């Protein structure tokens, strides 16, 4: 991976008619216009479905029963399902995008029959799965074959599920072997405990880690009133050189949708948070399908779009119609999409992509209008430009007089010693200083 990237997560069974063919040229052109670099196709390897033990019908994408097959229900002609998947990967590459699929090293479906060693129990309430036994050498050898199989189909990387339940050193050996044979393969780890970050970057060999208990939990907590914006500085300082190995997000299939009453209750409540995630440092960002038009998972359970059931999320359907037939979006959805598109494009400018960053919160303690618990201010700069960014997480307009210290003025080659910046409620503001 070369620098920060934008990953778009999509469950194909929820998109259009729920087939590989629905992920067509129109969708890929749309994603390209949204600055997306990787499309994460969730639920491709064949999983347990239509049996008494599965959760819902068609069941969970994370209960794989055959690691060398794709789900028949995703194909127009089930007998040619692998060819249809390979054609989809080809379309993705032709559009200038890359493709991720799931890798699930901790468990398989209850009806799995294959070369992995499997215990006769599951973790927690994942009753549709059985835990994989990594103490058996057959497992490491088999998973290496699995990853090679999918890499040979043209996929460009893997989003790796619940890796903290699997030995980092064993995963590291498998990943190293795959990368040796398929250079440039991207491995994204679902990691939660920050004390595991270094272990799974160094021993595990992952390229990106979820910063879930970092940026996600802090930003969500700020909006809920349970966290302070000061924690963003603390998290940044703690991450240090690991910034570029983080993956930020505000939604994914495990989390509640932003407009749902279980999260913010309003899709417009997160512009300040989104600006922080996209613009502050070198972390990559993940966007969940429908997020950009305010999908609220009203049909789901407690604000989550179901990964277990056949369902038709309204926002996702509206987005499909917009992408394929030009059907006009409702004004509120259209405005959201426009603003997402603007911020994503801004994040790809060289200064925000590769420039230096400077957290200015430490010198704004006595600044007029600055609330250290609800505001975050920083500068991004390079040889060509310098931008002051104010993220406002409060429900009130922010008007902040930002002091720019001498060492930053010298580093960024700017002359302003102080700038007045105003950001709308739950919003952000940018001020060009060079």
Overall description:
- The chain is of the alpha/beta class.
- It folds into two domains: 6-352, Glycosidases (TIM Barrel); 356-432, Golgi alpha-mannosidase II (Immunoglobulin-like), CATH 2.60.40.1180.
- Helices cover 30% and strands 20% of the residues.
- Strands 1-2-5-8-9-10-11-12 form an eight-stranded parallel beta barrel, surrounded by four helices.
- Helix 8 links the parallel strand 11 (246-249) and strand 12 (284-288).
- Helix 3 (137-152) runs parallel beside helix 4 and helix 8 (271-279) runs parallel beside helix 10.
- The two termini are 30 Å apart.
- The model has no long low-confidence stretch (mean pLDDT 96).
Question: Layout of helices and strands, plus pairs?
Answer:
Elements: E1 6-10, H1 25-33, E2 38-41, E3 45-47, E4 64-70, H2 81-94, E5 98-103, E6 107-109, E7 129-131, H3 137-152, E8 157-160, H4 168-181, E9 186-189, H5 197-202, E10 208-210, H6 212-224, H7 230-239, E11 246-249, H8 271-279, E12 284-288, H9 314-325, H10 331-347, H11 350-353, E13 356-359, E14 375-381, E15 386-392, E16 398-403, H12 406-412, E17 418-423, E18 428-432
Parallel strand pairs: 1-2, 1-12, 2-5, 5-8, 8-9, 9-10, 10-11, 11-12
Antiparallel strand pairs: 3-4, 6-7, 13-14, 14-15, 15-18, 16-17
């Amino acid at each position: 991976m070369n620098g920060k990237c934008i990953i778009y997560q999509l469950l194909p069974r929820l998109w259009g008619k729920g087939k590989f063919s629905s992920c067509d040229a129109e969708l890929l052109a749309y994603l390209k216009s949204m600055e997306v670099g990787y499309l994460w196709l969730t639920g491709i390897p064949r999983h347990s479905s239509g049996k008494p033990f599965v959760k819902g019908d068609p069941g969970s994408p994370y209960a794989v029963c055959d690691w060398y097959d794709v789900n028949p229900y995703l194909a127009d002609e089930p007998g040619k399902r692998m060819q249809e998947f390979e054609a989809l990967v080809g379309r993705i590459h032709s559009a200038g995008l890359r493709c991720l699929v799931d890798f699930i090293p901790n468990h398989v479906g209850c009806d799995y029959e294959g070369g992995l060693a499997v215990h006769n129990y599951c973790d927690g309430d994942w009753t549709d799965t059985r835990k994989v036994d990594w103490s058996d050498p057959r497992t490491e050898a088999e998973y290496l074959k699995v990853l090679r199989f999918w890499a040979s189909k043209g996929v460009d990387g893997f989003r790796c599920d619940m890796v903290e339940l699997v030995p980092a050193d064993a995963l590291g050996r498998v990943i190293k072997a795959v990368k040796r044979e398929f250079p440039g393969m991207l491995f994204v780890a679902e990691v939660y405990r920050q004390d595991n970050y270094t272990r799974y970057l160094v021993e595990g060999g992952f390229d990106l880690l979820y910063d879930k208990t970092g940026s996600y939990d802090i930003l969500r907590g700020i909006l809920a009133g349970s966290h302070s914006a000061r924690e963003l500085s603390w998290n940044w300082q703690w991450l240090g050189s690991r910034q570029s190995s983080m993956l930020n997000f505000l939604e994914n299939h495990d989390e509640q949708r932003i407009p749902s009453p279980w999260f913010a209750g309003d899709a417009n409540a997160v512009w300040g948070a989104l600006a922080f995630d996209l613009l502050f440092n070198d972390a990559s960002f993940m966007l969940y399908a429908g997020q950009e038009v305010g999908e609220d998972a009203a049909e789901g359970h407690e604000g989550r779009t179901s990964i277990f059931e056949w369902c038709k999320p309204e926002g996702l359907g509206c987005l499909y119609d917009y992408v394929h037939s030009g059907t006009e979006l409702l004004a509120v959805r259209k405005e959201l999409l426009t603003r997402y598109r603007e911020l994503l494009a801004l994040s790809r400018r060289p200064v925000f992509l590769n420039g230096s960053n400077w957290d200015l919160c430490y010198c704004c303690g006595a600044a007029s209008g600055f609330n250290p618990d609800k505001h975050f201010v920083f500068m991004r700069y390079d040889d060509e430009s310098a931008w002051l960014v104010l993220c406002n997480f409060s429900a009130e307009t922010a008007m902040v007089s930002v002091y720019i210290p001498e060492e930053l003025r010298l580093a960024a080659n700017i002359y302003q010693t102080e700038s007045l910046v105003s950001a709308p409620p739950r919003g952000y503001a940018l001020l060009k200083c060079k």
